[in-house]
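Study this pair:
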Amino acid sequence: MTRMLRRAFALAICAAAAACGSPSREPLPVTPPAEVANAPVARVPVAPPPPPAAPASSAVPSPAAAPAPKLDPATFPQGAIYVCASGAAPQRTITAIAFDEKAGKLCRRHPEMGPCQYERNLCRRSGGRVYAADGTEITMATEAEYDRKVMRVRFQAK
């Protein structure tokens, strides 16, 4: 009897561990080109920056010492408030996030507001990193500062 209980317990633990695994990351949905003009939020792919030229020196730098490529705000489409960058250098995808005029004005003035935060979190859930239109990254520390600014309270269901 003890043996059956151990097996049942082990099976229950394995099932719980499988259920708690990391969720699969889906890519950030992109707005179809025909709908961009009328969409309240448009997610448009941006061409990745060209790879940097190889240095002329004969020393080969280690991959760990290579800095992450910076995003050039000049390559962002007009009106983009945020940019979502995901993946490593060769397969890196960059998606610009632009809002309609009314929501865009709100997000520029009050980035802590819900619609703006929703788009940033959607980017992070897809495995991306969020950058502002000026090229600075919006980290979770920045999000925490936004939450303090509006005294946002999160309730968790049990």
Notes: Residues 58-68 have pLDDT under 50 and may be disordered. The first helix runs from residue 2 to 19. Residues 10 and 16 are 10 Å apart (CA to CA). The helical segments are 2-19, 101-109, 114-125, 140-150.
